Amino acid sequence: MSTEEKSLNFIEQIIEEDLKNGLSQDKLRFRFPPEPNGYLHIGHASSIALNFGLGIDYQAPVNLRFDDTNPAKEEQEFVDAIKRDVEWLGYQWAEERYASDYFQQLYDWAVEFIKNDKAYVDSQTSEEMATQKGTPTTPGTDSPYRNRSVEENLDLFERMKNGEFAEGTHILRAKIDMKSTNMLMRDPIIYRIIHKHHHRTGEKWCIYPMYDWAHGESDYLEQISHSFCTLEFLPHRELYDWFLDQVVDKNLVRPKQREFARRNLSHTVVSKRKLLQLVNEKHVNGWDDPRMSTISGLRRRGYTPASIRNFANTTGIAKRENLIDVSVLEFCIREDLNKTAPRVMAVLDPVKVVITNFPEEKEEWLEAENNQEDENAGFRKVPLSREIFIEREDFMEDAPAKFFRLTLGKEVRLKNAYIIKGESVVKDDEGNITEIHVTYDTDSLSGSGTEASQRKVSGTLHWVSIQHAIEAEIRLYDRLFTDEAPDSHKEKDFLEFVNPDSLKVITGYLEPSLATAQNEDKFQFQRLGYFTVDKDSTAEKLVFNRTVGLKDAWEEKGKKEENIINASLKDINKYFKVEIEERAVIENAIGENIKSVTNFSLLQNSLKKNINNNKSSLLFANWLLKYSDTIKFSDVEEETLQKLYNMSLKSESSFVRFETIQNLKKDFSNFENFKTQLLDLKTSEKNEEVQKLLSEF
Fold first, then answer.
1. Are 566 and 605 spatial neighbours (Cβ–Cβ below 8 Å)?
2. Is 36 annotated as a binding residue?
3. Could you give the residue numbers annotated as active site?
4. How many angstroms separate the Cα of 651 from the Cα of each of 99, 120, 574, 646, 671?
5. 37 annotated as a binding-site residue
6. DSSP state of 505
7. Alpha carbon distances (Å) from 440 to 268, 396, 444, 465, 592
8. Is 91 annotated as a binding residue?
């Protein structure tokens, strides 16, 4: 690998160091080892890119190995989906392997462990084992079965394999150290009984190896040189090495486990358990729902392999976990599709426009550029007729000065067509605009070179001819969760953050060139965003998924809410300096602002940030609890609330004390804790309003 081409990440530095220390280049071998108990997600994509990328850079083989050691959760469907996803991302594995390929060898080694007094059959209940294992701060105690004879252990283990015992009655444990500071080293389980059909071995086995036992030994059997995994496996490295110590041949390559940080993506979850819950509880429509963080879901939504690979390369490899904003992923797909996606016209919220001086029977086919970013993309023909659709938001009857779209008496250009001028509107009985009447300048055809065509107008609109338009189902997908880290709040169920507006289904009207669009074809709907054809699409009914908008609407919303918080904090300073009438106006305005903020994490952080000795900050923190519909008392950590109440009751400001007492009246779980403090305050309080409130207790 050339170090001149790019700086090395810490994973590559480990490999380079091993090569310098004598590891032969031809001994390098990597693997991607998914468990076939769910679909791959964006976190796996980063791991795939890492391992297969190393294979490409070092010209070393990379195995795809399925760690299929738990038949209770694994299915062939997941195996097939994983293979499909890896191939779609553009990678090829050297060998397809399975942990189940090694079941016999793993069993034989386990028998040797027993013979060498390094393993024993334990017959405790799971509850008894948990007690006997101790805690991180207290050592464990030996199992009462730890000193079973080799003969008894061999007999029981053989009978476990033969299916003579029920699940949970016996396990095989490694005999290591019950006093180890690493809990994983306290006689870990090697085998457990599972009476389930295995997708490859059928009913042959009634015992199955634990992940920690099978994983490292599978690496060794495949002669994997470097086993890269995420940080949660760092405590497992000691056990990984202990297991290898028992079986390794010094003449063979010994695998080395090293850890890197998981990439967490905002506004989503990547826990397989939680993804499965979303599927099973019908919050989404299957593993490949375009709102899911699964590779299948991203593919169906319209993401490309190149965009996901670019995302993995952009975010890089780190030693510390961090939250990557989903806008980074969205940027990667915009950047890719901007180069490759044909531009077309579609109207999603239509209002009818009648070009009154365009002959009724006439249709004119105009030339439109397919992609200005790609000079080889060519041109297509789009039809213009007397009646067209434009977006409803592109017209205002009484428009402000800075409205640069269609209004009465002003001109705009129709994309690839003519300049039109708003003349009049037709309304229904309720006053809703049903038609907009315009005239067009016959000499102003775009690109014609006439003087009229070069006239500058306030804006350009996309449109479709009503006569030629294709109706299509448009699925407007948005982020699945409203919070950036939905599963990080201890007091909240992550499902409480499911975005109720994550999918809206509407009817759109498309230009006729899209009639032959096929599954996964991608387009830019001009001025609207990038869209891809869904697999539900048929020749009779096209279905499009919105992949991503042209702009990051969430970033704009986030900045707006941050600005609301900051502006409210500034305004609150005035509250202490004005008369009672003005104070009421300020409080009402700030209260309305707080209600408009829906970002849970922003509110949580704002609350914690403002628990300090500043009276304005304390008043704002209390108002957050008073006015927010998003954050409730039960959502805030007990320690945080108690700190807020303590500081607020001692505040120099009677306004702060008053609001705190009001909040305590509603926060029943904390009221009793502060009853003594409130009674003490009752004897010393000088403010009449606060004293009146205290008299209620």
1. no
2. yes
3. 35, 262, 272
4. 63, 63, 18, 9, 18
5. yes
6. E
7. 48, 18, 8, 15, 46
8. no
